[in-house]
Amino acid sequence: MSAEPAASGGLRPRPLSPHLQIYRRQLTSVLSILHRATGIALSAGALLLVWWLAAAAAGPESYDRFSAIAGSVPGRLLLLGWTLSFFYHLANGIRHLWWDTGRGLDLPSVYRSGYAVLAFTAVATLLAWVLGYWARGV
Amino acid sequence: METDTRSPIARVRGLGSAKEGVQHWWVQRLTAVALVPLSIWFVAGVVAMTGAPWAQAGAWIGRPLNATLMILLLGLGFHHAQLGLQVVVEDYVHAEGPKLALLILVKLLALALALAGTIAVLRLSFGAAA
To answer: Which of A86, B25, B93, B120 could form a disulfide with A53 if both were Cys (CB 3.0 to 4.6 A apart)?
Structure first.
């Protein structure tokens, strides 16, 4: 928020969008755009959910084909990205809902919740994959 | 100093220039709140079924409670996604034609995918595939 220029008599300076080439990134702005990016990723990943359901409904052969593709190395990398995106969007979404109540909006709180979201994303993703491999018995 | 230039009736209606008020914002929040437990349930279920054969996975999806939650997840999830993607398109696509085309595509695609997923769940639920 810039102060109103008292003597210039000109227009009050309007807020500008960041100039991306010279913009210094901060945790707040990176986490903000990540929420949008993971939202887009999850929307694309929802195709995988429909594919999984459709494969299961079509019968064992289709389901085995799906499992083989999902279990391949590229498939696993995609699922890892999906898991990271999911836990990030979940935690940061809850952060947004908390902000919507008008709480936690001062800068120290915003940074604290930001780091908490990153920590949760890492721990939850790791836990989900450990449990997944455990369930699979490999 | 009075800075609100809206007429009293416009202020009371609170619908703004797009004539829909806070509807988009509110539904996005409602679906978000519902998706917190639903999506955690889904991920936990999928993790538990990693590498499970078709018979087990299909039976799990088809169970009445799971099928209900899955259809809720599909409906609310795709609705939430479609609301979010709408804002992304509106923010970055400025040419009126492509913007309109993309918005329609996103919304119809979300509807079609939610429907396709729901039919798959129902098929497993009513045992046509078994």
So the answer is: B120
